[in-house]
Amino acid sequence: MEITVKNAMRIGPLSTSEIVAGHQRLDNVVKGVTIIEAPDIVNWLAGGELLLTSLYAAPVGTLNYDDFVKKLADKGVAAIAIKVGRFVDHIPEDMIEAANQYGVPIIELEPNVRFVDVMYPIMAELFNNQVVKLNYYKVIQERFTALALHCIGLETIIKTLEELIGNPVAVYDRNFKSMSTTDPQLETFVEVEDLYNRESLNDKLSFYRQMVQYPALGEEPVPQVVVPIRAFNQVKAYLTVAELHKRLQEMDLICLEHAATVVTLDLVKKVAVQEVEQKFQNDLLENLITGNIGLNNTLERAALIGWDLSKPYTIVLFNIDNIDGILAKSKDSPDKMYLQGLKSDVVSIITGAVRKHTKNYILGTKNDAIVLLWPSPGDQNGLLEVIKKTGKEIQEQIRNKVKKVSVAIGIGDAALKVHEIPRSFKEAQDAITFGRMIQGQNVIGVFSELGIFRILCKFAKQDELQNYVPKSLLKLIEHDKVNETDLLKTLEIFLDCNGNASKAAKKLFIHYKTILYRLERIKALTGMDLEINEHRLEIEMGLKIIHLLGKEGM
Questions:
Q1: Burial 479-491 (b: 16+ CB within 10 A, else e)
Q2: Averaged confidence pLDDT in the chain
Q3: I need a labelling partner for 63 at 20 to 30 A (CA). Which of 48, 173, 202, 217 fits?
Q4: What is the tally of structural domains in the chain?
């Protein structure tokens, strides 16, 4: 229990003394008692002192009391007790005015009061309080240490804290989603004041108090004490107390400090377990998509973590751009942990979106990509629409939250058996590769919708594709460059219009006879006759390849 100036006025000789100034600050906390008889005492103060003086060294008229009292107030002095009748007959008026102005309580002591009679009782109370705090600190430490050693879990930790401090407790993740709470009404909250108005309670541990609204409790603002939980140089969660029943006192903050330590240990333990599990899952997934392990071994390892590989899956690949590049550039930067957190955020966004549509999915990471095995029972076409819609939601959330990265999505054909997973994974990769050439970076590519491009997926290297561009089309490209014409574009539009010259002319905003003339020029330059099916197929394939390679600067 802290001793305030108001409390001190009930102890020893102060109980018969009078407060003559600074009544507005009677809640100042007394941390010690000091006798002063030198004007430069200000230089030796730490704050919280009850100063005892007879003004022997600073009689009336010899000191600027306004300046003196202001310096004491700036140092955080609790109060000044002045004994009158020996060296001064009364407390100077300008000192009283300054005390009222700067909020420093002044106590008038009777002439016969000895300073030691004031000092000893108050110091005894302070010592007793310190012993009480130490004993309480020991009890609380032992209680929370037992919780930590027995790995009780987050729910028991916060329930214990609630019992000790008499207010409901909640833990939120770094996105302020509820992880555990002693009162369901605290599941969500909204901050109602600017962060600059937060009240700091502990600079070392970053405790602070803010005003919030809990929708389940109505619109009345509620004071909330927040403790950021840090692990691996990052804020991983927030331990909070809703001051619904009482304002937290010093003893409560001791409980909160110990609870924060145990919550941190619990989260670190969970993170370590998750990392081991995730590595095991990623290794297994790597072997699944590459086909590097035997079927029996695969099924045994999958069964250990609850994966059912007897069902069909559609492989969905998320290629995350820019994160690894940012990490490489910031290798020695203190922001590296933050950037690694960004990747975790992307995984969280994907997981949250997928959970809305299916439960028994399999998710893992591979370098800068995230691999998802989406259960595929029933209608494949209907499933593709759900996956594409989910993909758009994911891309939108990533754009809004993780602005430094972008994501491309590839969807392979269903893998009906476990040995077909590598094929479906390769198809998802091809869907991204060729989808980007057609649609750009943030593509949602579906392998089954690539059409003729699926044949081109068989060519691993770009220069192999170039070998299959008909020489006739290469002549046409060269002619356009030299003569600054658009015969290649005319040919593409004509074929897109299924050989309808009239429609093509309208699309090109040219006369019908002009397009007929251009088609004759194309025939003369290339030697290709569009009326012959073999020629037409070769041209269309060549145009597809040119279109793909054109994105790369052909």
A1: bbeeeeeebbebb
A2: 83
A3: 48
A4: 4
